[in-house]
Design goal:
Number of strands: 3
Helix content: 40-55%
Distance between the termini: 41 Å
Shape: elongated
Strand content: 5-15%
Structural class: mainly alpha
């Protein structure tokens, strides 16, 4: 149940009674009081929607059209506004990496020039996975340094979100995404910049 907070007025100080000039803080308090009820309703509605989406799986969300049917290139009709809504929903299904994991890797993420003298190997170049790890790690390095970088596929953004679930910011720009870290949230959560 939402309580009616329309009588909210804030703290009263001596300057509030001065009528010779407008008090910006008093005006701001009055504006907050006017919009507080709407803000609380919107927050409650957003929480209810989030709970509803958490009960669904990704296939059901894709089938219902809430999120796009692909994890690769965006549809031609995607806008930044619809992407932001989809990104918030997709983040509900991400399991973030431990804070100890600083870059994308794994057993086969580095090039090996290996082989022994008995069984020499030929070098065929890096694998697709090694190139992808390098790409994601370069983006992580750039955004942690406070820069803006670019992604071209949804799955790339989802991999970045595993490292920075709460402070990763994105903006869809007609075929690609700009990605960066929110410095305020990054410092609150003890993230590295």
């Amino acid at each position: 149940m939402i309580t009616d907070h329309s009588i909210f007025g804030g703290n009263i100080e001596i300057e509030d009674f001065n009528t010779s000039y407008p008090n910006k803080r008093r005006i701001q308090n009055q504006m907050e009081a006017v919009h507080l009820q709407q803000t609380l309703k919107k927050r409650k509605h957003r929480t209810e929607k989030g709970e509803k989406y958490k009960r669904m799986n990704l296939k059901e969300l894709k089938k219902s059209g809430v999120i796009s049917n692909t994890d690769s290139r965006p549809s031609e009709h995607l806008t930044d506004e619809t992407w932001q809504k989809e990104f918030d929903i997709r983040k509900l299904f991400i399991t973030p990496y431990s804070s100890k994991v600083k870059k994308l890797g794994g057993r086969f993420s580095r090039e090996t020039t290996g082989g022994s003298d008995d069984t020499p190997r030929t070098y065929d170049g890096c694998t697709n996975w090694q190139s992808y790890c390098s790409f994601i790690n370069d983006i992580l390095r750039n955004i942690r340094a406070g820069q803006v970088d670019y992604c071209y596929y949804i799955y790339q953004i989802m991999d970045l979100a595993k490292f920075h679930l709460h402070d990763l910011k994105t903006r869809y720009c007609d075929g690609y995404w700009e990605v960066w870290l929110d410095p305020a949230k990054s410092q609150e959560e003890g993230g590295c910049l």
